Amino acid sequence: MAEGTTEVSGLADDRALLGRTSTAERVSDILRSRIAEGYFPPGTRLSEDAIGGALGVSRNTLREAFRLLTHERLLVHRLNRGVFVRVLTIEDVEDIYRTRRLVECAVVRGLGEPPYALDGVAGAVADGVAAAADKHWKGVSTANIHFHRELVALAGSARTDELMRSVFAELRLAFHVVDDARRLHEPYLERNQQILRTLREGSAARAERLLAAYLEDSLAGLVEVYGRRVNGGA
């Protein structure tokens, strides 16, 4: 995909987020969020001059931010061509789901005795239902990611939260390639509610089984539509 100026014009609004102590980490946080939102779609070349100018940061700071996001597998550096938002392979998608199963199912399995602190999970479910009512399917996708982030947060582990933040950001690279967000995400609204109900009932073991089946079905559906888009030149 071609580099453009419209993709970076809104970044100037994010300059205030840098504060007086702007760092590569803060720049990477901004760019990570923008990539997750689809502001920079997979395959987009990122211009140092345009982004650095929009954020008001030095070239060295921006390059360090690019390096951090490359380490997170959100960006890729191509020799003599520049830095691009990564386009995932089918193998990448499968590996992401393998990681999700290992972490998310382990979190639910290890919840211990109920009751569980489910306010965040319930909030994400409600956001998804509201977005679907408005036919805002990208909003449903965002709410669905938040649902899984809140499930992971039940572990109370900052390290696990950090790991999965990167995994979910990478997953959204695949979502942005798929052109039918409703088909991809709407079926899981009810399944999110079912998992929430099961956890409220105090049955972590049943919730884990529901989650494992959910992730298996989600992977199969995503691989089917994503594979067609990538192989078709998307």
Q: Judging from the principal axes of the Cα atoms, what is the shape?
A: globular
Instruction: Tell how many strands the DSSP assignment holds.
Output: 3
Biggest sheet architecture: 3 strands, antiparallel
The poorly predicted ranges are: none
Q: Which strand order do you get reading across the main beta sheet?
A: 1-3-2
Query: What is the structural class?
Result: mainly alpha
Radius of gyration: 19 Å
Query: With helices defined by DSSP (H or I, 4 residues minimum), what is the helix count?
Result: 12
Summarize the helix and strand pattern as letters: HHHEHHEEHHHHHHH
Distance between the termini: 10 Å
As a percent range, the share of strand residues is: under 5%
Nearest-integer average pLDDT: 90
Helix content: 55-70%
